[in-house]
Structure formats: C-alpha cells, structure tokens
Write a structure and sequence with these properties.
homodimer, Tetracycline Repressor, domain 2, Arc Repressor Mutant, subunit A, DNA-binding, 2 domains, about 75% helix, mainly alpha
Chain lengths: ~210, ~210
DNA sequence: ACACTGAGAGTACAGACGTACACCGAACCC
DNA sequence: GGGTTCGGTGTACGTCTGTACTCTCAGTGT
C-alpha cells in the first residue's frame, strides 16, 4: 500500500515522471518473488496508488514496462563496465576490478540484477529476448577488450568469443549468487570464488592456446 | 485441447496414474513459455480434459506439482551422470563424455531441462529452493569425482568446490543454450564451445594450482 | 482570461481464477 | 451380491483480472 506520491506543487511533467518511476519501481518490487509474468496491472496500480486504467497513461502493457526495465538495468551496468576498462588494463587488473565493480553494482542495484536474472529465462517473450540481446552485447564488448590486451593478439575470434562467453556466464552466476546471499560475509566468499574462477579460466585460456 | 485419455478397461490405479501423468506433462508444456507461476490450475485441468476440482485428487497445488517435476527431472539426470563416470575416467574423457551425455539428455528431455532452467530462478519459492538443492548435490558429486582423478590429490577442498561450481555453471549455461537453439547444426557449435570452455577451465585449474 | 490538454478518477463488465460442497457410478474388496 | 472407495462431475461462490467508456479538474500555452 502506501502510495505517498508526495505533495507540493510540481509541474505536470514532474508529476508524470514521478508516477512513472513509482510504477517501474513497484513492478520491479512485485516481480521480485516470482517473475514479471505473475504481476498484474492491477496489483501495480493499487500499490502505486492510482486507479488501474491510469496505468495506460504510462505503458501499453506490463510487457512494455518490462522492456523499459531491461533498458534501464543495462544502461547503468554497461556504463559501470565501461569505467572498469578506462585504464588500459592487464588481465589480472581486469579480473579484480571487474569482480569488485560487479559486486558493488549488484549491491546497489540488487533489484535490477534480480530482475534481469529472472526475466532472462522466465519473462514475457519480448523481455526475454531483450535481455539475451543485451547480454550478447556485453559479451562482444568483453571480447574486444580482451583482444586489446597485450599477449592475446594471436587468438582466433572464435576463441575470444568462447572465452568471453564463459566469463560472462560466470559473472552472471556470481551476480545470482550475490543476489540471493544474505548481507553478511557470505558476499566476500562469493567474490573470492568469483575471482578464483575467473583466474582459473584466464590461466587456462593462456596456457591452452600456447600448448595448441 | 484434446484430452484423449484413451479408453479400454484399465484398473483404477492405472487410470489414476494415466491422469496424473497427463497433468504433469500438461503443466510442463504450459509452463514452457513463461514459468510455472503463470500456469493456473484451471488451464491444466481444461487441457487434460478433467474438471478443475478433479485436479486436487492428484496434487494439493500447482506448487506441489512443481516439486514433483523437479524430482523427476533430476532423478533421470543424475542417473545419466552416474553412467558417465562408470569407467574410472581421465579428465579429458570426463569432459567429452559429459558434454555428449548432457547434449543427448537435453535433446530427449528438452521440456524437463527448460523447466529446471526457468524455475531455478523464477519458480514458486519452494520449487526454486528444490532446484537449487538438487544442483548443489550435482556440484558435490562432481567434486568427489574430480578428487578421485589422478593428479588432483593435492587440491584443497575449497579449490575443488570452486572448480566444480564453475563446471556446473558452464554446463547449465550450455543446457540453456541447447534448449533455445533450433534443431540444426547450431547444436554442434554449442557442444564444441562447451568442450572448449571446459578444457580451458580444466587446463587453468591444473596450471593454476601448480604455479601456486 | 480562457480554452485546452492530459493524468487520474469512477463505473462497469465479461471472463478467469481458486476452492467449497454435494453428488455419481464404476472398480474394488469381502 | 452388497457395501465401500474414490476419481471425476456439476454447481456455486467471491475475488481478481484486463480493458472500455465517461468524467473531472489542475497545470499549460496563448
């Protein structure tokens, strides 16, 4: 319950934006313990504190709302990932920095990551597709990052693809683990495991190539 | 539609079992394009060709039905995995055999694997928990398998855990990819990638340990 | 000052939902 | 042969769903 859209004299666009945000946040919250497909327009409206039909002033459907959530989730994630590779990195730096940044980002945007993890496999079809597409973009970006690192020039593009896929898969799994972990020191355990996994993969990729 | 439970004079328990299977299969089918949380008791009943209230003669709820599906999915998977390690294996054999067996199993039980992939993150809470538990068991079994392989005696149990987690994560991702792949030669690509990934991981784990 | 725009309210409806209850009739056991 | 068991039926309920329609009225541009 508790709409509390707040009062005070705001401009019309401000009011609309505020309601829109409330809808997005509420949908994120309501989908958290199953999936967006189990969230109804009416639930969202009631929680936000508007009448059901007012929902349509902002989104054509729950599915459209979901696509918006996918976008805003990845926009912020990819911005952060871009920061990771600002300095031209060594591989070790890339790993440590990536894990830290991922963990930090998951912490502060837990809801968005949970959303992505769920809807990736269980959302409305269009939402599912959007998530997969975004993840593929991240994979591609990672591949070009790796390619720019000294010592990897000789790798085939296939190998790069496979490696970056594996790393992203591992990071997604790490994010899932971080999400469902309670707050405590479990988090640092998971981060340690993630670093170890990525290092294993990395060492493997290097030696695997050099020994044909 | 199309119940077609068939006729002929069957015993009462046979009839009951037949209906029960139809319910399980129908639920599996209906959940395939979102999640079990979006499947209603009435949908299932209508598809099976029974009246809604008759559902209760077999399951207390959709959630209980889901737990049953989790069980039967993993029973068959773990039976197959047990076969993989029948011969005392080398690591390379373990990888190749595992990938082949996984792919084969995914092919023939596509619906069950899809179900697990989805409900793992987006199912009813109890179902989600059951899937996670089963996956953890598989991780543990894999860890003890690896520990029995010559050359891995010196590894710490932590390293074993991390490695098997990584391998299982990779295999789950592979299964997901296989499921949503169309039939064609994409499948063999995915299998190749999976083998490469596992080899990378493997080589990495070996060299990583030896070089402290 | 005034007409306009548009977010939200209010009402309404047909359909789907889970579930309670009484009932049936064929397979079952003695 | 006669009573019992039990899978499946039929009806009925209150609730929730998406969406169509009309209405209100405060912020806006002229």
């Amino acid at each position: 319950m508790a709409s509390a859209l707040g009062e005070g004299s705001l401009s019309r666009v401000e009011r609309k934006e505020r309601t829109r945000r409330a809808i997005l946040d509420t949908a994120l919250d309501l989908s958290a313990d199953t999936s967006l497909v189990a969230v109804s327009l009416r639930q969202v409206a009631k929680e936000v504190g508007i009448v059901p039909t007012a929902f349509y002033r902002h989104f054509a459907s729950i599915e459209a709302l979901g696509l918006e959530l996918v976008d805003e989730s990845f926009v912020s994630l990819r911005a952060v990932l871009r920061d990771v590779r600002r300095p031209e990195p060594s591989l070790k730096q890339l790993i440590d920095a990536s894990v830290d940044v991922l963990a930090e980002h998951v912490e502060v945007r837990r809801a968005h990551f949970g959303f992505i993890a769920r809807e990736r496999v269980a959302g409305p079809p269009a939402v599912r597709e959007a998530v997969r597409h975004q993840i593929e973009l991240v994979e591609r970006e990672l591949a070009t990052d790796i390619a720019r690192i000294p010592g990897t020039e000789a790798w085939s593009s296939d190998d790069l693809r496979v490696l970056s896929k594996l790393m992203v898969t591992s990071m997604v799994a790490t994010a899932e683990a971080l999400i469902l972990a309670g707050r405590p020191e479990v988090t640092t355990d998971i981060k340690d495991q993630a670093r170890t996994q990525l290092r294993m993969v990395l060492v493997g990729a290097l030696n695997w190539k050099s020994q044909g």
